[in-house]
Amino acid sequence: MFNQSKYSQIYHSIIANAKDRILTSYTERHHIIPRSLGGDDEPDNLVDLTAREHFICHWLLTKMVDSTHDKWKMMNALGYMMWAENQNQERYRVNARLYERLKTKHSEMKSWAVSGERNGMYGKHHTEVAREKIRQANLGNQINEQQRNKIRQNKLGKKRKPFTDEHLANLKKSNSGENNGMFGRKHSEETKAKIGAVAKGRKLDPSIIAARSEKIKGQKRSLETLAKMRQAWERRRQKAQELGVNPNTWR
After folding, report:
1. Can you give the pTM of this predicted structure?
2. How many CB atoms are closer than 10 A to CB 56?
3. Distance CA 22, CA 85 (A)
4. What total of structural domains would you count in the chain?
5. Which of 74, 134, 139, 172 is the most buried (most CB within 10 A)?
6. Which helix (H) or strand (E) holds 28?
7. Which domain holds residue 81?
8. Helix ranges (DSSP H) in 114-205
9. Is 59 part of any domain?
10. 116, 144, 178: which is the final residue of a domain?
11. What digits encode the pLDDT tens for the residues 101-148?
């Protein structure tokens, strides 16, 4: 079950030492073979450790197993010791460097645990009934103006790093053809009306308009962009002509 590494040797040394003593100070009950690995609650699988020893043993356990699945279990147990509330045990404080390493490893293992066939929804799809329940549960969940202002203020002055060409290509691929959620579908007239009603009268904040204007000041559009704009205008003009409306004011 456990590998033959130095971590296993240290672990068994701590356990052996703890079994041959009696502590009168604060202690915590520890499963020598964790229950998630098949251990039981029998007396010979239990030992009393100090809080520091208990934390160290659970950290060692993450190094003593080789399979990814068992590592995930041990990282979870260590995470609960650090972050989950427990009235019967003290929580453990670690330095910033160790905390970062543990959080990074825990994040990697958590990502592994819910990917591919390990994900509960792998190969499955929500039924129409389930989708409707989700939709109904989310109806009316809109961000209020106070929340919008908070998000806006938090983003002011911050610039993200420009996307790499590879990232842009992946984004394009993930939203094109059959990967696009609207592939082969069209908005109903009711949906179009809702979209139009939401967009009507919407105005950008003057500071946003000024920031965008400043960003593109002095820039020249490429010939490719100009060609696309001409094509888009021609399509708009033709559609407006069919409807008998002015293309300059038609929305």
Report:
1. 0.46
2. 16
3. 27
4. 2
5. 74
6. strand 28-31
7. 6-116
8. 128-138, 145-155, 165-174, 189-199
9. yes
10. 116
11. 777 887 888 888 888 888 888 888 899 999 999 988 888 777 888 888
